[in-house]
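ugh ok fine here u go
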Amino acid sequence: MGGLLAEARGRNAAGCGNAAVNRILPGDGGNVATALKTQRNRSSVKAFLDRVPDERRRKDARAVSAIMEDITGEKPAMWGTSMVGFGSYHYRYNSGQEGDWPLVGFSPRKDSLTLYIMPGFRDYGALLAKLGRHKKGVSCLYITSLDDVHLPTLKTLVRQSVKHMKKMVKERASQATSDS
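structure:
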């Protein structure tokens, strides 16, 4: 499941290198615990988007925020200092690292608008072929401008990824309950 299972040093739960970086904190009994730097907080999404320096990127970020809010039914929330997320799920790696992460989100970066599609892209090849100009990472979709992509396809991709994540979260919760 791409982003859920992608664990790499210096990468976040989305499998992207620069949105969140793990930091090492002292743990109990001299052990080392890993904490995720990017966590949900109460910072203003509106104020963050208002500070995006590039007018086109700011406009695109507001449009993506509206799309994701409409699809998820969730209000946007800041995650860390530069990521806007919608909804959340709890993850736990085999290494013991665990945390919370948005179901879907985005970050208006200098070079592109980065969308976090948490299941990864394995099941979305046909949609990506119709999407238009983009690049992708493990669970990151990089778009230079919304003018370069087919918006109905982008909405379908976001909708399907959120549906996939909600189903996976529900299955994991049911499995954890039955294991208890």
